[in-house]
Amino acid sequence: MANKKRTTLKDIASELNISPAAVSKAMHNDSRISEKTKKEVKRVAKKLNYQPNHLASALRKGKSNLVGVIVPRTNSNFFSSVLENMEAVLNKAGYNIIITQSNESFEKECKNIDTLLYTQVDGIIASMANETVDLSHYEKIKSNGIPLILFDRGENDLNVDYVGINDYDSSHIIVEHLVEKGCKRIAHIGGYRRTRIFNNRIRGYVDALKKNNLPIDDTLIVESSLTLEDGRLEMEKLLQLKNRPDAVYAASDNAALGALQVLNENQIKVPNAIRLVGFGNEPFTSLVSPSITSVDQHSKDIGRIAAETFLNHVSKDDIKQSLNKIILDAELIVRDSSK
Amino acid sequence: MANKKRTTLKDIASELNISPAAVSKAMHNDSRISEKTKKEVKRVAKKLNYQPNHLASALRKGKSNLVGVIVPRTNSNFFSSVLENMEAVLNKAGYNIIITQSNESFEKECKNIDTLLYTQVDGIIASMANETVDLSHYEKIKSNGIPLILFDRGENDLNVDYVGINDYDSSHIIVEHLVEKGCKRIAHIGGYRRTRIFNNRIRGYVDALKKNNLPIDDTLIVESSLTLEDGRLEMEKLLQLKNRPDAVYAASDNAALGALQVLNENQIKVPNAIRLVGFGNEPFTSLVSPSITSVDQHSKDIGRIAAETFLNHVSKDDIKQSLNKIILDAELIVRDSSK
DNA sequence: TATATTTGCTTAATCGATTAAGCAAATATA
DNA sequence: TATATTTGCTTAATCGATTAAGCAAATATA
Description:
Two copies of one chain form a homodimer.
Chain A: H1 9-16, H2 20-27, H3 35-47, H4 54-61, E1 66-71, H5 77-92, E2 96-101, H6 106-118, E3 123-126, H7 136-143, E4 148-151, E5 161-165, H8 167-180, E6 186-190, H9 196-211, E7 221-223, H10 228-240, E8 247-250, H11 253-265, E9 275-277, E10 294-296, H12 299-315, E11 325-328, E12 331-333
Parallel strand pairs in A: 1-2, 1-3, 3-4, 4-5, 5-11, 6-7, 6-8, 8-9
Antiparallel strand pairs in A: 10-12
Helix pairs in contact in A: 1-2, 1-3, 5-12, 8-9, 10-11
Chain A binds a DNA duplex through residues 6, 8-10, 18-25, 28, 31-34, 37, 52-53, 55-62.
């Protein structure tokens, strides 16, 4: 019962007294094999519970039909949704995906890339860890000659395909919205500038203030890892200011939630005293009280487009591909925290 | 630059005028290879940017050093945390993990198993989808002779290793807690009985009521998929009852959150009018208002133990293994919703 | 000094599936 | 009827890495 040897093409071949080559072709419905033989082969394959050995065929064909995916973490709705839609598109095209998590760690990200290359994936779709600054491990993917597609967390310096939303414009939309509600001192709990998307959000925020003739106050702009804890910490600091903000725009929903907790604990009315906007449209933003205004990042589209970009690459590898930078417009979802 | 051929052992061998076999041994620090040769080999390997071809070595060795993992979804903190800890243990032992999601779909789960077997994983660690009743696809793993370890969502009928918490006892702890607070009509928004863990929670709930001499009222026991929507729906139904419950025990945090929303919307004071307990200790339980009492499932331990169970299997495959059913005690985290 | 052992490699087979090349028999075409 | 084409396979090589078996040279032991 246990550990019985796997059935191979050879076993089927010897049972039917034909060559393994014929069996292989029969399984792939080669037109040069008679219908009768195909039927027989499939019957015996089923009888012997034949499972093709992927390692062997991938080795021979030089193609594994696997796509590696690297995400910072899977436990956000954004990444989970991206993965789901990415997988759906790739499955339909005959590819399977291998998901790995970097846990926002640079070291882990490097190891994940090694693992994926080592597993001979046909391509890698990745979103960079917060820690990542050095990009040599990504260069390694490119020098391996397999497609690399980045999404959400990308890098301009890296000459690769990218799918994401327009972070710069998103900040504009947020600031415009808050200004419309009468806010004059808008604080920004941002991510680290070294990450492109967070830098863009900061730039968008600053430019939008300028555009609305509002002064830029450096004490209202902070950089952090954007965790819930960071949100709490920075909100507490902002409340210490002599001249408090009348609105807070956090570059992540987690940070926004942390800020909201502190505001609630201090009995500061949201949105009346301070308006609050997050980023990412995580499900909990609509669950907390008051519900948090946020920006939807079109996770489904990002997953789908990233997958399609990969498929595009492998379908016409002969032609030198032009780079695809696909920037989607984000959507502001207005909720109670800024009404 | 692009699509240059991969470096193989042969390339290194011909550069140094030795055999590929010697190169292979040198890379693995075989004691029968001179230090001088090893150094040379490693120098050239680095120079040519050699990456071993996993497909080839796995095919030859009959071992891929990959472990397949199937989870219903990655976007809960529970599964995400299990994965993180599982991966840490397996990485240390030289294994890499391939994560797949079933999205709670039976069909997807079957496809995932096929993919993993096809990829020649050395073992599979899985948590079953809600929909799953037929277990023949799991039998397929067993008949392939590779270890199968289930966690959280397991099945008694399947003769495999299992790691999870004591669902039956957890219900007892919850009911005792609510009784202590003076509750007499405790409703249970449960999962479907066909899933073992949910069945155990229902049994535990019923037995605990009996133990406390409380009547069993069938109108207070409902089965659902335990989503947030289900929680809302069932809570609304419970509020229609002539004889309303004074406590609700939901078998998932999402369902508990749905129930809480309905209670808040109806201005029913929690915990004063109705006490509420969830299950899973998802982070949002402490974030909503009021915060929700819940049961912690020791996700870290479950991930670690599942991984260790797998390693145990592969380390002594000669001996017929005895089954491991590891049941951890869960922990009640009391919060505002039941104080 | 003669034999035994160790060192440091090479040779050749292997893991399974795939595919280019080839060939005999069957069938189609002129 | 003679030749060309098609059908339905087989043979043999291949994808890279690994490993059992073997062998010559170097070294150790009696």
